[in-house]
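Quiz preparation item.
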């Protein structure tokens, strides 16, 4: 079978896998990871006068340390294959299907990395912004929502966008826990047609197109969020 015939037969199923698994896994995992990242970042920048807060800060530090310090593939295997071996009275305490395990792992991994991005972005906002808002009688929650977060978002946008683009590519690891996303489909076609060069080149091209589009969106968002700074500089 010619390379062109393999492409024509493979492309529809690869696109279905992209729409059914790769994109949904990425969107859901990034959204959940971002929520977790904001919560973790807020805990880590909060004062630790109370024992409960010190405990939470230690817990979030440990979480970030674990998920930033171990490979994503190992995390996937631990959660999907390893957790069922935690048993009580001969029965598994936690047993997740592949989809749930994938979403959970990608969310936790994204949350760990994004929390550091958000924490650094919030910390980089000048202290004078806090002082000025406090002088106006604003509460801390209102200062964070209306003054600090908008400025931190502009700072955090480029690295968060890069994390999202990386997550698109990292979903290919989900093939290791039996999720039939794009890469696993390409593996099936490589075995079926005995031409891994064409199959893997095609899936690489599809990932490249996805990341190229997202890179364009990232550039537009950066210009959009910086338009006021640009106008002031002019």
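Solution:
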């Amino acid at each position: 079978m010619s390379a062109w015939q393999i492409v024509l037969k493979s492309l529809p199923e690869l696109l279905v896998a992209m729409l059914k698994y790769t994109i949904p896994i990425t969107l859901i995992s990034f959204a959940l990871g971002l929520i977790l990242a904001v919560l973790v970042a807020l805990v880590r920048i909060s004062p630790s006068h109370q024992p409960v807060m010190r405990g939470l800060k230690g817990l979030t530090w440990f979480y970030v340390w674990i998920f930033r310090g171990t490979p994503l593939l190992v995390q996937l295997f631990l959660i999907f294959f390893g957790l069922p071996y935690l048993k009580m009275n001969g029965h598994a305490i936690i047993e997740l299907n592949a989809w749930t395990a994938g979403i959970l792992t990608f969310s936790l991994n994204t949350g760990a990395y994004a929390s550091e991005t958000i924490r650094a972005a919030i910390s980089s906002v000048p202290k004078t912004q806090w002082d000025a808002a406090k002088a106006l009688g604003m509460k801390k929650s209102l200062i964070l929502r209306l003054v600090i977060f908008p400025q931190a978002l502009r700072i955090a946008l480029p690295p968060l966008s890069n994390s999202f683009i990386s997550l698109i590519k990292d979903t290919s690891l989900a093939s290791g826990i039996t999720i039939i996303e794009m890469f696993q489909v390409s593996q099936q076609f490589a075995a079926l047609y005995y031409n891994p060069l064409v199959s893997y080149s095609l899936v690489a091209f599809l990932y490249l197109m996805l990341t190229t589009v997202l890179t364009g969106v990232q550039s537009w968002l950066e210009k959009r969020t910086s338009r006021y700074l640009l106008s002031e500089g002019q």
